[in-house]
Amino acid sequence: MVNDEAKSVFYVYAVSDATGWLxxxxxKAAVMQFxxxxxxxVRKSRxxxxxxxxxxxxxxxxxxxxxxxTMVSNELRQVVLDExxxxxxxxxxxxxxxxxxxxxxxxxxxxAEPGLQYKSARDYFTRTEAIEFTVRHDEGLGLETLNQAxxxxxxxxxxxxxxxxxxxxxxxxxxxxxxxxxxxxxxQKLAEVDRRKIVGLTIAEEKLIAFRSTRxxxxxxxxxxxxxxxxxxxxxxxxxxxxxxxxxxxxVDVTGKSIEEIASxxxxxxxxxx
Length: 274
Known about the structure:
Blueprint: H1 4-7, E1 9-15, H2 21-31, E2 38-44, H3 50-62, E3 66-69, H4 74-87, E4 91-93, H5 96-106, H6 116-136, E5 151-155, H7 161-170, E6 175-179, E7 198-202, H8 205-218, H9 230-247, E8 250-253, H10 259-267
Parallel strand pairs: 1-2, 1-3, 3-4, 5-6, 5-7, 7-8
Helix pairs in contact: 3-4, 6-7, 7-10, 8-9
């Protein structure tokens, strides 16, 4: 027997084949216009098959609930309407009319991908988090959380580690880059991460000398510094190559390539592909 308190509660089911938050927020905004009414909004997400729809409608019927739904799929919307009618449950399609109106206006059929309205927002937050992570892990920083990186770049100075890291972060990859300097051991933390995440960057000796000479000039320092001298550069590149071989990591030659080309070569590896 249903008690008086239960009778005084009204149920609104917010249903979707995606997250259900759009239907939930619409229901909440509408319910707020009614004072002194006790309403419970029940969010139902990922209702994406006829069987799930029938089960949901049976549950809603048992509570004498009404349904607000935002199905993207034409087929699922029709199933909800048909099954609700059979069960005597009131169901309102709040997505269909908007999609139909816009389809006529745009002269184009809508996508049937559930949750599409959240995809761009999700991508934005993923990219933002990746950029923040990458900035915190530039030039050997943040070693305590190095294992959380998706990609770890190793390379000597002027092999495009930082700009490449930022570009990859904009693609949603959390990057860390660790400088390689002749005679200086790499951080022990590298031994604790999956070697497939690590990419060694190399470059032609003459190109690296040119880059470093330009860098010294911009900094107002003499071009005679070891940093840009052939013997020093050659030894540093050899040290890096030996290190990459010891670690057993993949090596990418950045000589004459744009940042976009290098990034594409890295993420097209089967390990990094989604």
